[in-house]
Amino acid sequence: MSAPEIKLTFDEPVQRKKVPKHLADYSPDERREMAKQFGLPAYRGVQVATHYFSHLSNDPQSWSDIPAEMRQSIADQLTPQLIHLVKSVTCDAGTTRKDLWKLHDGVLVESVLMRYTDRVTVCISSQAGCGMNCPFCATGQAGLTRNLSAGEITEQIVAAARACADGELPGGPTRLSNIVFMGMGEPLANYNAVIRSVRNITDPNPDGLGISARSVTVSTVGLVNGIEKLTQEGIAVTLAVSLHTPDDELRDTLVPINSRWNIKEVLAAADAYEKSTGRRYSIEYALIRDINDQSWRADLLGRLLKNRNAHVNLIPLNPTPGSKWTASRREDEAEFVRILESYAVPVTVRDTRGREIDGACGQLAGAEKIKSD
Ligand code: SAH
Q1: Which residue of the set 110, 152, 186, 284 is catalytic?
Q2: Which atom of ligand 1 is nearest to the CA of 323?
Q3: Is 110 among the catalytic positions?
Q4: pTM score, two decimals?
Q5: Structural domains of the chain ordered from first start
Q6: Angle at Cα 111 formed by Cα 106 and Cα 113, nearest 5°?
Q7: Residue-level pLDDT at 14
Q8: 3-state secondary structure labels for all residues of 160-177
C-alpha cells in the first residue's frame, strides 16, 4: 500500500520584484556587454555612460550621438529611472535639502544634500531600513527592508550632482564634492553594491563621476569582515567607525553587533585599514546624556585613541521619537572635548544640520511618516 499523499502548505515566500538593471550596476567593461545584450553595439554602453556620469543628463533627447528614434528606448534599457522623487524638504535657508525617493517596488529611502561655504555633501542610503538595531537610531528601529542595488545608490548620488550643477541650491550652480554613506543602512552589510557605487563615484569621466576617494566616507557599525575586505579593495575612502563608547559592556547595548566583533577587534581592523591606505579614520560618537558622556569615558576613549591615527567626530544625539535618551548637556560635551584634546586626539563636534526636517543623523526613517501623512 502506498503511503497517503500528504499535502504540505507553506506560506508563499515574499517575492520581491527584481530591481531593474542599470548600467551603474556594472563595471565599464560589463556596460559594453550590457549594451550587446540588448542587441546594441558595445560602444552604446560607453556613450550612455558618458551622458550619465559626465553630463549628468537625464534627457535622452539631447543625446545627439545616438539616432533620435533610438534615444528613449536605449535610455530605458541602460539607464532606467530607479528612484522617483516623492518630496523634498529644505531648511537652513535652503542649503540643506532632504529628498524622499520611491523605488520601483514602492520602498522609500532618503538622501540629504548639504551646501557649506567650501563643499557640498550628500548623505545617501545604502539599504532601505537597517538590520543593525542600534537603539538610539530611528532607522535601526524599523529593521531591514532590503539592500539597495548599486544603481539605486548611484542614482541618489547622480541626482545630487545634477541638483548642484543645475543650480538648485541657493548660491548658484556648484559641484558635488563629498559623498557620505551615512543615510539609512549599514553600507558594509551591502558590500558589493556599495563598492560598485564607490567606483562609480571615483572612476574618472566617463566611467564615473571622477570625485576623489578621499571625499567619500563609508560609515560602519564595525563589521570587521567588511573592513578587512575594504582594506583589500585598494580604494582609499575615508572610513568612519561608529564606536559610541570605549567599553564593550555599554557598546554591546548601543551597537549590538559588538557582541560579534568587540572594540579591540574593530579598532585593529580600522588600524590595518589606516596602515594600508594611509588614511586617518573617523570615530563616530553620538553623545547621549548620562549614558556615554561621562568624563571617565572620555578619559578611556582618549587612552584608547591617543596612539592611533584617528579623529573623533562627536555627534550631539538627535533624539528619536519616543526615546528616553537625549543629547548631552553643553558643559558635559565641552568637558568631553577637553579631555580628548588633553590626549592630543583630534576632535570635532558635528553640526546638527537638518534637524528641523528630520534630516539629521539617525532620523532618516521617512517611510512611516509618509504613509501616515
Ligand atoms: N550604519 C552606519 C551608517 C549609519 S548613520 C553606521 O552605523 O555607521 C551615520 C552615523 O549616525 C552613525 O555613526 C550612527 O551611529 C549615527 N546616528 C544614528 N542615529 C543617531 C542619532 N539619533 N543621533 C546621533 N547620531 C546618530
Answers
A1: 110
A2: 22
A3: yes
A4: 0.93
A5: 82-372 (3.20.20.70)
A6: 150
A7: 46
A8: HHHHHHCCCCCCCCCCCC
